[in-house]
UniProtKB/TrEMBL annotation:
Keywords on record: Cell membrane, Ion channel, Ion transport, Ligand-gated ion channel, Membrane, Receptor, Signal, Synapse, Transmembrane, Transmembrane helix, Transport
GO MF terms held by the record: acetylcholine-gated monoatomic cation-selective channel activity; transmembrane signaling receptor activity
Lineage of origin: Eukaryota, Metazoa, Spiralia, Lophotrochozoa, Annelida
Annotated signal sequence range: 1-19
Protein name: Neurotransmitter-gated ion-channel ligand-binding domain-containing protein
Topology of this chain in the membrane: Multi-pass membrane protein
Amino acid sequence: MATPLALVIVLLCPGLLVSQRIASEGELVHTLLARYQKEAASLARPVKNASEPVIVRFRPSFRKIMDIDEKKQELSIYLWRTHIWKDEYLTWNPSDYGGLNRTRLNANKVWTPDIVLFNSVNAGLESKDGDSNGKLIVHHDGSVQWIPRVIEKSMCDIGANDFPFDEQHCFLKYGSWSLRANELQLDAKEEADMSEFHHHTEWEVIGNSVKNQQTKYECCEEMFEDVNYEIILKRKPAFLARFMLLPAILLSLMLLVIFWIPPQRPDRTSLGQFSPDAFCGIKPEQP
């Protein structure tokens, strides 16, 4: 009888451990949020010493260029925004919760940095509710990680002087909307992550850089910290050269041939009428 009993215990132990872990995590989340409502607030900075700034590590990960609207002077890009900071009110001892050293919380229940795109053409901020954008990963030492997925639409001055062999420089300027430089510091020394970038059919990203600075705005007396990410784009001219430059060159050569044909020959008139019609009939589709 000992062997079947041992087998039953072995089979039940993993389920009991999982149930205990779920119960421990539920208790932990309840305790953290209850303590947060008592000692802090979702709008207050997560530091116990008000004179200390919150240091937020920030880095975007560029995923795909959605669109470049040359008429509206706008850049649309899909990216992930990584925020990492320390919340002094979200700490616990893992041994009190079955060795649990991290958990997940809803972003609208605790403080999150109000970092926005200053040169955005969209109205309002992205939502913290719903899918994974509203989830934070919290570690037992108070470290918090938040990676919302957004489609940024920013202003970009696009020139056409060297079209179609042009390069464009677009900027994404991020910063806190309400917190001064002595209240929130942006740790953004790395360039944007391009490891998961999907290439565009018409534009190629040939470089990107980052620059930190402090700015004083007319509205306020204090300095605000912001970070500028520059994206250098180069147009791929192959498509435009094939359907614009090459037909123009061929048409010019055919016009020269027409002038060489004697005026009294009837095929000169026919060729002159046929040449523009042939090229106007080309209707390429954008890849």
